[in-house]
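Is guanosine-5'-triphosphate placement plausible here? Inputs below.
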Amino acid sequence: MPPSLTSFTDDARIALDNITDRASGLMHPAIRLGVTGLSRAGKTVFISSLVHNLLNGGRLPLFEAVRSGRVSDVRLEPQPDDAIPRFQYEDHIQALVRDRIWPDSTRAISELRITLDYQSASSWSRMFSRGRLSIDIVDYPGEWLLDLPLLTQDFRAFSENTVTLAETGIRKELSREWLALASSIDMDAPADEMTARRLSEAFAAYLRACKADERSLSTLPPGRFLMPGDLEGSPALTFAPLPNVSETKASKGSLRAMMERRYDAYKNVVVKPFFREHFARLDRQIVLIDALQAINRGPEAVQDLERALTDVLACFRPGSNSFFSSLIGRRIDKVLVAATKADHLHHESHDRLERLTGRLVDRAIQRIGMAGAGIEVMAIASVRATREATVKEDNHILPVIVGTPMAGETINGERFDGNKKTAIFPGDLPDNPEALFQNLDTPTAELPEINVVRFRPPALEESNGGLKLSVPHIRLDRAMQFLFGDRLA
Ligand SMILES: Nc1nc2c(ncn2[C@@H]2O[C@H](COP(=O)(O)OP(=O)(O)OP(=O)(O)O)[C@@H](O)[C@H]2O)c(=O)[nH]1
Ligand SMILES: [Mg+2]
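Reply from A.M.:
I modeled the complex. Tokens:
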């Protein structure tokens, strides 16, 4: 049985936060949209393109309120939370649109408020509703969600899980140095700051090596070890799991006791506040995943992505686990899992990518035995960096995609300068996603080959008057409709 860690104050504070949010929501309807995904999944690009398309009258035929002309004004407004950094929309969009480079990586939480004035669809509500909705978009690293399971693990369980995982597959070679150091240390000896630091640095180096490894995505908790932010060097981040922790209580003043205390501190000062102050207040959520990259990297990477997705989805659908439910609330009623960067495929494969993502989600849901209600799956491209074409080769018509590879990209020995365009055959996904999952467990399993080229963001088309049009995308409007279309009814 998981130790009961929620305190009365946790519950009370969440309830209070929710009441305050709701009360202000009566005056001015607002929803909080969480945008998450593992690093490089495409969060920043998604938010930038979504906002740009809304502000600049983008092509959004599947977003009903815009298509039917009911949205009269869209603007950015000051966000409601003064303590959260603002999502720097202007910088990101300048990079994308003016410089045609991808925005910089972001490492922490940020927020942006966009407000829409609209006419209600029904004449009855038109008489009463003020027709204004603010969407508070919150961008946060998916890695932070992977910390949730830690809350039910004591130090011994955490150590055991982490060490077991470190001894399997690709991770075995990456963890060698850390584990060698850890086993050479006497955890019952008096605590010593330098030993704690050496251990924690070796452990962090292992986590970094996993993340950098080409063969896997390897996202392992604790999430803040790789993104410490302003906690860098603090005791709450200066610990490491230990091999073979015994069941007996740690002796006072020992290294093991110190590690246990700091592990608990990590949960109390890092994990819980995030869930309480940020996560518990979200209404809707999109989870971005880079399924194509995982497939490209091989079976172990796909399994890693599956594991991460399972842990992420468990946060949204805590099911019967009342400990989680009480900490994170049950407010999120719609979750969209979106496979991004679909512009790397020909449109014939978009539905296949969607089915494959659906299968990933199904497997995750089954694994934790939760209800899948309110979870939707799509394949999208926040920014469409390619166009489609066909080439004729030996009497065959081949579907290709055309784009401008980033400066320095090399394809078939040709190095690109960032200006020249090229056509590539992107590769196919299997029609039946099951084919991909069937032999994932065999390390030599063959996965379909997808040509993932890093293309530059597209040059925007101009209208007759010379006005730049909005960022092209794939199915971004469908995502909008699902995430907040109902709130503009
Ligand atoms: N072609 C294409 N590439 C994309 C798209 N979205 C993201 N990318 C690529 O993916 C990279 C990462 O996108 P970001 O939006 O910065 O990802 P993120 O999740 O914010 O990453 P972190 O801030 O590092 O956590 C970009 O630099 C692009 O190269 C897309 O819709 N199409
Ligand atoms: Mg980002």
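Short version: The pocket of magnesium ion (ligand 2) is lined by residues 43-44, 105-106 (CB under 6 Å).
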